Amino acid sequence: MSYLLLAIAGLWMADGLALLVAPLRTVALVRQALAASPSHATWSGVTMAAGLILLLQASDLTYQGLWMVTGFAMVAKGGFFLLSNDETRHSVLHWCLSRDAVDYRFWGLGLCMLSVLLIHACGWL
Fold this sequence. Notes:
Layout: H1 2-21, H2 23-36, H3 41-57, H4 64-83, H5 86-96, H6 101-121
């Protein structure tokens, strides 16, 4: 199960670094991907599954409260995007994808921080 947690940490690190290095280019690629394949069911399911993994493994990890809150937030976000109507989903995505570059850099720092903390909690650092 720790390999699944490390995969989540790897995804967070990759996303965080992309947002730090080239935030506007990364967001432009996300917009293109959403335009090409507007189905959110797959990614919402992946987000919910990763959140459930975090929730189930939180008791075995350092920073247990952080992983429980993060896992719950991931499940809630995935559920929202899976169950919300198209208009609501579109307005939330539009708001998220129309931020300033500095906002994306802060999200990138947060994702990198979560990644390093999860790797540390798994005992690999």
